[in-house]
Amino acid sequence: MRRARRLRVALATLIGATALLLPAVAPIGSAGDAPKAPQAAGQRKCGSNEVVRVRIGDDFFAPRRITVKRCAKIKWRWLPDNLHVHDVTLRKAPPKVRKRDFKSGTGSIGLRFSRRLERPGTYKFVCSVHRTVMKLTIVVRR
């Protein structure tokens, strides 16, 4: 009887913890994603089909520096063997880019985050949890 009760309590605890994590692992395009940045007036429509993948591991982005064409899509993916939580936070960007549109959820495994970089210039990203060691620079050409 005690063993069954302990098992039910452990199961309820696990279900509750999982429910707390669900918003952090929401799939791309879900309500948990930040809104897409609106296209600025006078900005040409994006025509680039370039997609660049960035891996997020314990205390690193890989690659750390990328050069892409304007309108390239960047896809971040958290590696399955992470032990620590990480996020993607835009620290520096070209003028008229809203930093709040480039903030991912925070988690350790299974997350995905993507954004299209429409304005030429240099974008500097960090993990806000490990900002001194996890840095990523993306240069967007015209």
CATH homology superfamily: Cupredoxins -  blue copper proteins
Shape: globular
The percent range for strand residues is: 25-35%
Q: pLDDT below 50 for ≥5 consecutive residues: which ranges?
A: 9-35, 38-42
Biggest sheet overview: 4 strands, mixed
List SSEs in N-to-C order.
HEEEEEEEE
How many domains? The number is 1
Determine the N-to-C terminus distance.
69 Å
CATH architectural arrangement: Sandwich
Helix content: 10-25%
Q: What's the arrangement of strands in the largest beta sheet?
A: 2-1-4-6
List the topology elements:
Layout: H1 2-21, E1 51-57, E2 60-62, E3 65-69, E4 72-78, E5 89-92, E6 112-117, E7 121-126, E8 135-141
Parallel strand pairs: 1-4, 3-8
Antiparallel strand pairs: 1-2, 4-6, 5-7, 7-8
Can you give me a brief rundown of this structure?
The protein is of the alpha/beta class. It has one helix at 2-21; strands at residues 51-57, 60-62, 65-69, 72-78, 89-92, 112-117, 121-126, 135-141.
Write up this protein.
With 142 residues, the chain is an alpha/beta fold. The protein has one domain (2-35, 47-141): Immunoglobulin-like, CATH 2.60.40.420. 14% of the residues lie in helices and 32% in strands. It contains 1 helix and 8 strands; from the N terminus they run αββββββββ. The chain has one helix at residues 2-21, and strands at 51-57, 60-62, 65-69, 72-78, 89-92, 112-117, 121-126, 135-141. The strands form 2 sheets. It has a 4-stranded mixed sheet, with no helix packed on it. The longest helix is centred in the first third of the chain and has 20 residues, at 2-21.
